[in-house]
Structures are given as C-alpha cells and as structure tokens.
Amino acid sequence: MIKKLKLQGSAKEIGYEHGFQGKKEVLQSLKTYEKLFHGYQHIDWSEARERALVHLNAIEKYDISMLEEMEGIAKGAGVDFEDILALNARSEIALAGYKGTSFSDGCTAMAITNPISTETIIGQNWDWKPTQIKSLLLLDMQNNDHPDITMVTEGGIIGKIGFNSAGVGICFNALITDKKSDEVPIHLGLRAVLNSNSLTEAVSKIKGGQMASAASFLIGYDEGDGNGMAVNAEVSPFGMDYVGENPGKLVHTNHICSSLIKQNLKDMNEFRYDDSMLRKKRAEQLINTTIAKQEVIREQSFKEWLSDEFNAPNSINHFENKRAPEHRRMETVFSIVINLAKRKAHLRVGKSLENDYEELD
User: Is this structure's pTM higher than 0.90?
Assistant: First the structure.
C-alpha cells in the first residue's frame, strides 16, 4: 500500500506536512541514495550534499517557492535542508556525467491521443531501486497559486509523475549522459510542469537549457471535449527537442532519440540496444497490434501493455537482474495510467500482476 498525504497551504506548509507525515519515507530515500551515490559515483553523503548546492542559485531564480517547500520538508522530517536538496538533485548527482559500465536501466512511457483516441491517456512503469517501493508517497496537493496536483513521488522529492486539475500530466524517463550543468534539477522541472495551467506554460519551464541534465518529459494536456494532445520533449542543459512523430501515439524508454540532443551529449546507457530500444519497439508493437485489431484504446489497454513480460527480465514490466551489482539492480516499482480527459489515474505499486490498479482522482 502507498501512503497518501493530503497537503494544502503555502509552499512551506505543504513541505512541512510532507516531511512530518512522510518522515519514514524521507528517511528511506536518504538511505537508498546514500548507497546509490556511493555505488555510481564513489562519493559519500557529504560530497553529494556539496554537489547539490551548486544548483541553489538557479533554483532560487527559477522558483523560490521550491526552496521553501524543501525547507519545509527538512523541518518536518527533522533532517538538514541540504539532505532534501540532494534528494531533489539525485539524477544530476547519480546519472549525469556517469562514466561506469554495465548500467541497468528501466522505465517505459507511452501516450495515446487524437486521432487514435478522443481521450488523452498517458502512462508508464517507473523502474528503479526495489528499496524505493518503501519510500513511495501519493501526494494530493492544493496550493492557491497553482492547479491542484496528484503526484506519485519518493519521500522528500517535490517533483515526479502525475497530473493536475488543469489537465496537464507528465511521465518521465531518465537518460544517462556524460554532461550536466548547474541549472535546475530535472525533478524540479517535473514539478514546474505540474504547476502549469497549459501545455505552453509547461514547455516554457523546461526549454532553453533551463534543465541541469538530460531526461525525457512526456507531457499530455487535455482541455476536454476531445481537445487534447501529447508531446515528448527530450530536455538537456543545451536545450530541448521534440521526438516521436507518429500521429496520436508516443513511446519513450531510456535512450536519447533526438539527433539534436546527441550533438551535445553522449548517451551513456550501456544497454540501449539490448534493453531500452527493445522495450520501446515492444511497446510500439503492442500499441500497433491493438490499433490493427481495431480495438478501442482505454485505460485497460495501457494496463495490459505495461504488464507485458515479453523478454523478461528486461521486459516492459521490468524484473530485477540478480546478476548485476546490487546498486545497479532495477525493477518496476510502480505503474501508472493517467486519463487526462477524465482527470483520473490508476496506480499499481510493485511489478506483480497480482496487485490491482487503484483508481486515483
């Protein structure tokens, strides 16, 4: 079961309740990432905190309320602000500039919209450290300055996967590259998208090199009455680019697709050919098969696609590779399907097909 927190008020008040009510999950995140940073980058926690501090000025200029929310989490959980900042910069610390080998990746995201469906539906499996299943939080956030947000996140991290009351939703895939900047960490970019009232506003928050590292942001937006669309933006410190030109359908996994982005960054995913690309092709095959059968695509279609175990353990429903070093073992931690037309989502915690999807709204 995932812990659900209803948060409302100012950024600092929302953060405090996140930290206070979710203290156990915050501490679990700190434990996980202390090991992970050592495994990936051979650094201790004090150095991880120092690396996170380089983003402080950019965050302050970007949205000072995000710093206030992180300060609130730290106070509520009884930890240092720098600890929470390091969690929110965890992709920049662990994945950007990675120079190791044999990296096991995960996450498969997809979207269906017009002309295939009158409803805009996005969804993904989030594949990461198995221990982080104990850090998951479902946040229902109400802040007068932004739309209401429903988001699944890791304890202590203020931006992740979800949707808002304005019809904006986001899915996310990590990209492993050789460069980063001191700009805004990508998890704060995810939150900025969820703070947005429109697709235009969402994209304005992530374009032009504002993000400190590379990632895939699959963003959906639905205004109702069949008016919706989705875009897949690969963001980076050198700018962003849209990928995936198939009308009405998008799929992304964990390799860089944009030739423009690859002009400035090297894709360091050692398994892009035999894992990430195969998962992408399999997801496209499943979608195309459903379309060929002239079946109506609904939330249940996504649930079936995201449960696919073809080519396990490197399947869409990802299983842990026991042969990999412990810090590199990944599996599906949760699966989410978001119907932006209905402003509803379905969430399954864990990779087991025996676990049912729970409806969120």
Answer: yes
Domain boundary among the residues 94, 121, 152 is at: 94
Q: Which helix (H) or strand (E) holds 347?
A: strand 344-349
Whether the link from the prior residue into 313 is cis, omega within 30° of 0, is yes
Q: Are residues 305 and 218 in the same domain?
A: yes
Q: Which amino acid is at 69?
A: E
The DSSP call for residue 354 is T
Q: What percent of the chain has pLDDT over 70?
A: 95
Query: Which structure tokens are listed for 357?
Result: 């999807």
Using CB atoms within 10 Å of the CB of residue 56, give its burial: 0 to 12 exposed, 13 to 18 middle, 19+ buried. middle
* Lookup: tokens for 47: 């150095």
**167 contacts: CB under 8 Å, gap ≥ 6:** 120, 221, 222, 223, 224, 228, 340, 341, 343
CATH of the domain at 48: 1.10.10
At residue 101 the predicted structure's pLDDT band, cuts being 50, 70 and 90, is very low
The total domain count for the chain is: 2
Residues 268, 173 share a domain: yes
Residue range 317-339, pLDDT digits in tens: 998 877 666 656 789 999 999 99
208 & 300 share domain: yes
**Residue 115 DSSP class:** T
Query: Residues in the chain, how many?
Result: 361
Quote the domain boundaries for residue 43.
3-94
Cβ neighbours of 145 (radius 10 Å): 8
